[in-house]
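pinging the channel bc i need a second pair of eyes. not urgent but kinda urgent?? the chain im working w is below, pasted from the shared doc
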Amino acid sequence: GTVTRVVPFGAFVEIAPGLEGLVHISEISWSRNVSPDEVVAPDDTVRVKLLGLDEQDKGQPRLQLSIKQTQTDPWDDVASAFQSGTVVPGTITKTAPFGAFVEIAPGIEGLVHISEMSYAKRVHKAEDEVSPGQKLSVMIKDIDLQARRISLSMRDAEGDPWEGIEQRYKSGQIVPGTI
């Protein structure tokens, strides 16, 4: 079909002359944090899947379409693309009282629990450390394919400040510090 117009809640696609359907924002991309105009533009040719057909008041059909369901599920490739212990780039998608969600690939999000945000200080609120849209590196701690969950760590990606402490500091050495 052809994209006829893009609106904040999705995109309208004409699949035949005079027959138009809506691709809701949730069906545009596997990535949850994109706006429709970042994915499609008017006059783009797209492949869609028909999800449903309703009749409106005037007897005209109302088509429910999906772009993302014409693509492979990104979780199908997680086992081969990601391994525990690797550091990957990501983008903060949202914060919650218990941590922050990070998108490490389109449609693949993981959680950085607040306990995994810093070695240097205790984090009480994720939004004190990170904000949506921020790019950062995270280490993959665990992947649960059945539950579709990935545990991530910011602090392990930065490195443990106690690692190699014996080589950097010797007993009796004078070092500057902040009180």
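so Helices lie at 36-39, 78-81, 154-158, 165-168. and The radius of gyration is 23 Å. — does that match what u expected or am i reading it wrong
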